[in-house]
Amino acid sequence: MPLPPVLSAEIYVIPLEAGRYLVYAPLRKAAFIGNARVVNFLAALKDGNYDGASDYDGSMTGFLRRLEMLDAGPEQPPQAFFPDAHEPVSVTLFLTTACNLRCTYCYAAAGDAPARFMSLETARRGIDFVVQNAVKRRTGFIDINFHGGGEPTQNWNVLTGAHDHARRLAEEHGLQLTCYTATNAVFSDKQLDWITANLQGASVSFDGLPDAHDMHRVTRNGKGSSESVMRTLRRFDEAGFPYGIRMTVTADMIARLPDSIEFICSRFHPGQIQAEPAYQIGRWAGAPSAETHAFVAAFREAQSRARQHGCEVTFSAARTGTLINHFCGATQDLFAITPDGSVSACYEVFDETNPRAKIFIYGAAANDGAWQFDMEKLAFLRRHSVDKREYCTGCFARWTCGGDCLHKALTVCGDGDFSGTDRCNIIRELTKDQILARIADAGGVCWHGLPGSDEDEDSSTCAKCGEKEDNTPAVQTSYGKE
Question: Domain residues for 218?
Answer without folding.
Answer: 90-376
